[in-house]
Design goal:
This protein has 4 helices and no strands. The protein starts with a helix and ends in a 7-residue tail after the last helix. The protein has a domain at about 1-45. The radius of gyration is 24 Å and the shape is rod-shaped. The mean pLDDT is about 75. Helix content is about 70%, strand content about 0%. With about 70 residues, the protein is mainly α.
Length: about 70
C-alpha cells in the first residue's frame, strides 16, 4: 500500500510543477502589464483608430525618431 501511494505521489508531481510554473508566468505578465508605462498603453490602444496617413505615423515622430 505504501508503495502505491509513493508511486502515485511521484506521478502527481509533474502536474503540480506545471501549475506552479503557469501561475508564476501569469502573475509575472500581470505585474509587467500593471507596472508598464501608461502612456504607451494609451498610445497603442488608439492605433486601430489612427489614420494611416497621419504625419506622426509616417515620420516616426510618435516614437521619438524625428
Amino acid at each position: 500500500m505504501i508503495h502505491d501511494v509513493i508511486t502515485r505521489a511521484a506521478n502527481s508531481l509533474w502536474p503540480i510543477i506545471s501549475l506552479i510554473i503557469f501561475v508564476l508566468c501569469f502573475v509575472g505578465v500581470l505585474i509587467w502589464t500593471y507596472r508598464g508605462r501608461k502612456d504607451r498603453f494609451v498610445r497603442e490602444a488608439a492605433l486601430p483608430l489612427d489614420d494611416a496617413t497621419s504625419p506622426e505615423l509616417l515620420t516616426g515622430a510618435d516614437h521619438g525618431n524625428e
